[in-house]
Design goal:
The mean pLDDT is 91. The protein has four helices and five strands, in the order ααββαβββα.
Length: 137
């Protein structure tokens, strides 16, 4: 049985770890992190609608949770996007323009942010399923 995951991007973007990772990226690498849903809408952070759409498109066929580097047609910058996917279902992605002189830190932090969102989505779905089954029923 495949579970269809639904997420609240407001909740995901407000996760403490996600917010802190975004702050680290901005402070250390001087680039802003954005969040896009699976349809490519900008749902949080910084970025443009065009960049969000490009990032979601690039992540739509991802076979791995690892960040993908691509040339964003919207902002004309090298960009990284980490898919937020559960059981093969793309929920969205975390993205940011590549930072000058970055040695891989950006990719690691985007991957961590996406992984935290996945964990939250899976745990939330598990709690909802348990709540739907009443004790003694």
């Amino acid at each position: 049985m495949t579970t269809q995951f639904e997420v609240s991007w407001g909740d995901l973007c407000e996760l403490h770890v996600v917010k802190r990772l975004g702050q680290i990226v901005e402070r250390r690498l001087r680039v802003a992190v954005g969040y896009a849903d699976a349809e490519g809408a900008l749902v949080g952070g910084d970025g443009t609608a065009g960049c969000a759409s490009e990032a979601a498109r690039v992540c739509s066929g991802a076979e791995s949770p690892l960040p993908i580097t691509f040339d964003c047609a919207a902002c004309k910058r090298r960009t990284l996007a980490a898919p937020v996917a559960v059981e093969g279902q793309l929920l969205g992605c975390v993205f940011a323009p590549a930072a000058a002189g970055d040695d891989g830190l950006l990719a690691e932090l985007l991957e961590l942010s996406a992984a935290e969102m996945v964990t939250f989505a899976v745990d939330s779905a598990r709690r909802e399923r348990r709540g739907a089954v009443e004790p003694g029923a």
